[in-house]
Structures are given as structure tokens and as C-alpha cells.
Amino acid sequence: MAPKPKQKSLLQSIFRFFIPKQMLSLKNWFWFGVSRIGVAVTTFYVSLTLIFSVIPVPFSAYMLQKKVEHLIQGDLYKIQYQWVSLDRISWQMQMSVIAGEDQKFPIHFGIDFDAIEAAIKRNSKSQKKPRGASTISQQTVKNLYLWHGTSWLRKGIEVPLTFLVELLWNKQRVLEVYLNIAEFGDGIFGVEAAAKHYFKKSASQLSLQEASLLAASLPNPMIYRVKIPSQTMRSRQQWIMRQVNNLGGINYLEKL
């Protein structure tokens, strides 16, 4: 039975009260939905970043990506991973990754614009594979929340997430998470797992020579292998050791 005119008028009034007139078009509904999704995604990442500011990270998006990729291929993929606090990671290891990956880590707010400009100029003059200029903060965000691979979409998401992490975490926390989830070999994540796998010791006992070798593998641990270091990797290891000394060694960490 059709509603009476008064009932119909009342229903229309209620409908207009809860749903503004400007929302009645399909286009406005679309943007309304997009805005709600944006709010939900933002809330999710803010909440997760706040949680990970105080508790150990149980696993990263990159670990999950690798697990799924091997599962699809029908391969068994075992992850070696053990969280350790920053005070249980030798200063030599902390300084080696800063010296090798991001020497302006204490002073930038997640993005090193000078390094990006230099990388663009360098890559435009070189025929070799382009080199990036990602900071430790950006690499942390990529490993923790996103996926690996060349993608403008990922880069577009990475930048605001990097600013979010820098806003909610201090530098020590960024470095701590980075060192715990970075990949150091096939299925080897974090410095504790890497130290035990390659040197049969804990991350707190790593020497500068050992730490710099691990740091030298970080551009691509599948190519720069710690167990069988190439001459290129050895050269990078020596360069990192010199940079650690040039930066002031353990005293540099006081800037964080």
C-alpha cells in the first residue's frame, strides 16, 4: 500500500534532514564516499603509528609481501626476525646505517630535498640504474606500511606517511624500527636476526667491521650478500667505516 501524502511528506523531510540537498547527485555521493574513505585510512595509519610508537612491531608489510609472493610460487619462505630495543644494538651498527644511508638523519624532517636534487642530476647524466635518495625515515615507512617496487603511487603515499612518522616518533624510535625491520638477506629481517645468522652473536656485540658490512648490503641484500661480499660491497664497507669516523663515531648519536 502506497504511503499517504502526509506520510510521504514526512519521510521526504526526514530524508532531507539527514542527507543534505547537495548530496543527492551521483557526483556528490562519489566525493562523499571518497572523503569518508580518506578519513578512515588516515585514522587507521595515525592509530597504527601511535601504537607502534610504544610497542615492538610484530611484522612489517614487506615481510607480508615476501611471504605472499613465495606462497603464490609454492615456495616455503621462513622469516628470521627478533625485535630488540635500540639500547641492545651496538652504536657501531646504528652509526653504520646512518653513515651509509642517511647522514642528515638527525636534522631533516623525513625528506632530504638536497639528496633528491642531487640524485636527479646524477641519474640524468648516468646510463646506469637510477639511484634513489630515500632517507631512513622513508625506508622505514616503505618497509613497515607499503610495498617494494618502482611506483609513483607508492611514492605519493610514502611522503605524507613519512611526515606522520616524523611527527609522532622521535629519531631514536625511527632508527629503532628501521634497524628491526630492514632486510639483510633472504628471509632475514632486523639486525638481531642478521647478527645471529651471519656472525653468531647478538646485535649488541657487533663490531664496526661487522656492522659496516651489514650496512653495505642494504641497497639490495639479494645482490650485495653478506656471506659472499663482492669487491664493490667491500669498497662500500670501507667507505662506511671512514664515514662513521668522519661523523664522530658514537658522539654523533647524541644529536638524535
UniProtKB/TrEMBL annotation:
Domain Glycosyl transferase family: 78-244
Keyword flag Protease: yes
GO biological process: cell wall organization; peptidoglycan biosynthetic process; regulation of cell shape
EC number in record: 2.4.99.28
Keywords (A to Z) from UniProt: Carboxypeptidase, Cell inner membrane, Cell membrane, Cell shape, Cell wall biogenesis/degradation, Glycosyltransferase, Hydrolase, Membrane, Peptidoglycan synthesis, Protease, Transferase, Transmembrane, Transmembrane helix
Listed GO MF terms: carboxypeptidase activity; pentosyltransferase activity; peptidoglycan glycosyltransferase activity
Top-rank EC class of the record's enzyme: transferase
Gene Ontology cellular component annotations, sorted alphabetically: peptidoglycan-based cell wall; plasma membrane
Bilayer topology: Single-pass membrane protein
InterPro entries named among the record's database cross-references: Glyco_trans_51, Lysozyme-like_dom_sf, PBP_transglycosylase, Pep_trsgly
Keyword Nuclease: no
Localisation per UniProt entry: Cell inner membrane
Catalytic activity: [GlcNAc-(1->4)-Mur2Ac(oyl-L-Ala-gamma-D-Glu-L-Lys-D-Ala-D-Ala)](n)-di-trans,octa-cis-undecaprenyl diphosphate + beta-D-GlcNAc-(1->4)-Mur2Ac(oyl-L-Ala-gamma-D-Glu-L-Lys-D-Ala-D-Ala)-di-trans,octa-cis-undecaprenyl diphosphate = [GlcNAc-(1->4)-Mur2Ac(oyl-L-Ala-gamma-D-Glu-L-Lys-D-Ala-D-Ala)](n+1)-di-trans,octa-cis-undecaprenyl diphosphate + di-trans,octa-cis-undecaprenyl diphosphate + H(+)
Chief localisation class: membrane
Sequence intervals crossing the membrane: 29-57
Function per UniProt: Peptidoglycan polymerase that catalyzes glycan chain elongation from lipid-linked precursors.
HAMAP family: PGT_MtgA (MF_00766)
Family membership: Belongs to the glycosyltransferase 51 family.
Protein name (record): Biosynthetic peptidoglycan transglycosylase
Organism listed in the record: Glaesserella parasuis serovar 5 (strain SH0165) (Haemophilus parasuis)
Lineage of producing organism: Bacteria, Pseudomonadati, Pseudomonadota, Gammaproteobacteria, Pasteurellales
Gene name, Swiss-Prot/TrEMBL: mtgA
